[in-house]
Amino acid sequence: MDTIINEPKRVFRDDHLGGEGVDKSIRKLKDLRGIFKDERAFENMDPETLVYEVISYLPVKEGTQGGVYFGVTSIFPGSVGGEYFMTKGHFHAMIDRTEFYWGIKGEGVLILMDEQRRVWAEKMFPGSFHYIPGRVAHRVANTGKELLSFAASWPSDAGHNYEEIARNGFAKRLIDINGVASLI
Asked: Which stretches make up the Glucose-6-phosphate isomerase prokaryote domain (predicted)?
């Protein structure tokens, strides 16, 4: 009996994704209006500054039950008024959906907030692994001097609720105080 071993789809090499079914989005400073506290510092920066990019492998249509997505986010080093460059942050539209993050390179902090607005954080570094429970908003900040890259996996029906965070923000901010990342 002959056994056939098929080649898997190859979309992930080192910390890069590419190929069929891969989607790339970028966020420049101008796309992050309202998430940094120091609006004056924000206005004095180049709005075209690249803050982060997300490259995702999306093998099924968004909203498909039982599907899984995979992505890599890379956040550039920098800050706005002492507040580290970070992702927008979100709850999932399907609020009970979970997600995994794991560090690939660089240093950062995963900031988490539950529906009661309690905030906590976890350090991110190459090899760190993070379980994000349902009903928890999440964002990541780059606290290092080099690119921070991390991978993620989430259900294809999770969706993103960015509006809640845009409207109310996170209850705490991650600020550089004398070279120390401090959640205040």
From this structure: 27-178
